[in-house]
Structures are given as C-alpha cells and as structure tokens.
Amino acid sequence: xxxxxxxxxxxxxxxxxxxxxxxxxxxxxxxxxxxxxxxxxxxxxxxxxxxxxxxxxxxxxxxxxxxxxxxxxxxxxxxxxxxxxxxxxxxxxxxxxxxxxxxxxxxxxxxxxxxxxxxxxxxxxxxxxxxxxxxxxxxxxxxxxxxxxxxxxxxxxxxxxxxxxxxxxxxxxxxxxxxxxxxxxxxxxxxxxxxxxxxxxxxxxxxxxxxxxxxxxxxxxxxxxxxxxxxxxxxxxxxxxxxxxxxxxxxxxxxxxxxxxxxxxxxxxxxxxxxxxxxxxxxxxxxxxxxxxxxxxxxxxxxxxxxxxxxxxxxxxxxxxxxxxxxxxxxxxxxxxxxxxxxxxx
Length: 346
Known about the structure:
It is built from 12 helices and 18 strands. By secondary structure, it is an alpha/beta fold. It has 2 domains: 2-149 and 294-344, Medium-chain alcohol dehydrogenases, catalytic domain (Quinone Oxidoreductase, Chain A, domain 1, Alpha-Beta Complex), CATH 3.90.180; 161-290, Rossmann fold (3-Layer(aba) Sandwich), CATH 3.40.50. Strands 3, 5, 6, 9, 10, 17 and 18 form a 7-stranded mixed β-sheet that branches. It has a 6-stranded parallel β-sheet with strand order 13-12-11-14-15-16, with helices on both faces.
C-alpha cells in the first residue's frame, strides 16, 4: 500500500513509499480502512525536523475509517463499523496513570505517526479498546477532526474550567485555538477573544468568528492588552486559553489575567525553558491548568458535538485532497493558508 513516510532524521526526508499492509498483531486488535486523515501541525513539524520521531515511520494520527477485520477476542466492534481511533496504540496498563484512566500519560505509550506507523496510508492496525463509533450524520471528513476537538474538550471542558459569563482570551488561531474558542462559547463564556497574526486574517479569523469568537485581534496590528482592557471594562480576563506556545504570548497572558484568573496551557513552546512573570502569577493567585493529549471520555463528547454542530464544525476543514498533494498542503498549513487539511483516502 502507499504510505506517506518520514524516512530519515533531519529536515525533509518525507516521501510516498510502498509498504506492506499491516496484519492483526494480537487477538484484541483490529484493522481499519482509512477513509479520511487530518493533517496535524505535528506532521508538518516532523517534516521540518521540529518534533520527535522514529524513522522510518508513516506519518499521521488523526483519522476516521471502517473496521475491516477484527481479532478473535474483539467484542465491541465488527467489520463495517465506522470508527475513529485514539492515537496511542500501546500503554503498559499497570502504571499509576493507566490504572487511573490516564493512559495518554503512560511512560510506555507509543503514538501513531511518530513512534509507530500512522494513518497516512490505506490501512491501520489498532487495539479495539481505543476505538470510538462515529455517530450517524457525521461524515468521514468531519470525523477526522475528532482528535483535535477531543483535545479542546479535554483541555477546556474536562481539565480546565470555564464559568458561565467568563471573559475569555484564546491565544493562537490554529485549529486547537479555534476549537478552544468554540468550546469556551459552548460552555457559557460571555465574551471570547481570539488572537492571531496577519496571516490569520486569510481564513482563520473568519472561521473563528463563525465558531464562537466574538472578537479577533491581530497582535501585529493592535495592542492586545489595551484592546482587552477596553473590551473587559478594565476588569481583566477571567481565563486565558494559551494555544500558541509563543513565549511572549504566555507572559502576556499572565499580565492580562485578573486576580484569581485561570490560565489553560495547551501550546508547546519550542524551547524547554521560557521567561515567565512568576511573581505576578503568585501575587494574583492565578490558577494554572496544563494538559497533554486527550482523555478517553473526551472522544465521545467530541463526537456528540460533531453530530450536533456538524455544519458549524465543518468550517474548520478548509482543504480536502489526495495524499500525492502532501507537500503543497503541508506548506499551506505552515503559511496559515488553511486551517485543517484532510486527506481523502477512499
């Protein structure tokens, strides 16, 4: 089968190769025919050599598909079922994190698309326990958005905290930022402000305004603290959802928060350490919520939202096309000319 692979270490080294189709490796695993696969920023970062990976490896971890074969011990799914799959395909099952329902934090976790072969191909093998059934009315292209929406559900609704009538600022206009703005509004935020740069004006700001943002601010053209002070009546921000990972934006988030405010940290900085106004955070008694990956429960909640808001959430998918067009669409995502791109593989 054809697969889009990272073939070696270093920038570039991505190409389509012919590889063997996987077989079921254990009785509790299934095979899935990939129907649609979303391109994550992580995939572009691996292309650019800015994220960990173990080559040669098939890229991709956001996908939807149809179960084609099940192992002897599988009981919850059958051939023909439409599914999405959590990206981890291995966890120890016995550590503190696994036993407390946090397999996504297991030290032995292996993830599709950088540790083991991912979904930019026609067939994926995965443990049955990580499958979720796609509800009626949700297309394969939209269902491929489930992983980033589950991130927003977990980080904003489950692990973080948004209160009714909150004034919320979302830092960053990528897919996670736009979906976080959608979640904040869904949870009852009074005002949602989303930030971005000049490139965001092309397609990301318009989509954010449709999905729940009340205001969008280009930080390259406007003074963000002054604008937020104006919009909040000088009271400051109840909650900042930081998705950009930009050090200056993280520091600015702390400055904008009112006393007792909350910072939900999602974006990952490029550097291991960054300057943070820690004293200000302490003096303001701020609350911090940091998250990585998703929970099991966030996936079915994300699918429920997709069924309820299919037309709205479809605005996030701005490109669909073939695997052969990977390089051009990767570049368009780096340049913010698309929001979420989806390979249609069947």
